[in-house]
Design the sequence.
């Protein structure tokens, strides 16, 4: 009996340690990035999220996506008007043991003059930046970073797993005790 309880507790604590250190991210996900400018152009690309920069839009804007952020910057001296532009990042599916996630907040950080956080909206799996016909210019050194927070659904929390394991251990102990 003692061995059974020891095994159950060992599995429970191992599970708690594994799940408490696990975190889902966008690494390994393929996301869709779309850049629209009225009826003039509509550029739609897929990026596989990994280490380093994922790519460029129109050879002007670098896109670097990390586990929980989207970073956009203008590396060259090109000044490109972006007023009236809409950027959309979709298919933001969280990869990891915590299961699928839904975006709960997006926190922008930028050095653009005239930036307004109201440009950013989001849903469960997308982020949209609508420059609302505002006159902004992307110049060398300009950046926009979007930090993403997500709530994960799917697997039970570690405390739930612990309680279930302790309950099963108690049932096994009580049953074993009745038999003897």
Sequence:
């Amino acid at each position: 009996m003692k061995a059974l309880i020891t095994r159950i507790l060992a599995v429970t604590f191992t599970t708690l340690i594994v799940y408490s250190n696990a975190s889902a991210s966008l690494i390994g996900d393929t996301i869709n990035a779309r850049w629209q400018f009225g009826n003039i152009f509509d550029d739609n690309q897929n990026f596989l999220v990994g280490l380093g920069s994922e790519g460029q839009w129109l050879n002007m804007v670098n896109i670097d996506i990390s586990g929980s952020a989207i970073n956009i910057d203008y590396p060259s001296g090109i000044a490109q008007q972006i007023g009236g532009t809409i950027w959309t990042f979709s298919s933001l599916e969280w990869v990891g043991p915590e299961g699928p996630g839904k975006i709960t907040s997006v926190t922008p950080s930028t050095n653009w003059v005239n930036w307004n956080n109201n440009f950013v909206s989001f849903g469960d799996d997308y982020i949209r930046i609508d420059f609302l016909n505002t006159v902004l210019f992307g110049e060398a050194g300009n950046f926009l970073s979007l930090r993403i927070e997500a709530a994960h659904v799917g697997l039970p929390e570690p405390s739930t797993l612990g309680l279930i394991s302790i309950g099963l251990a108690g049932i096994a102990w009580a049953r074993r005790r009745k038999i003897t």
Notes: The two ends are 11 Å apart (CA to CA). Confidence is low (pLDDT under 50) at residues 9-22.
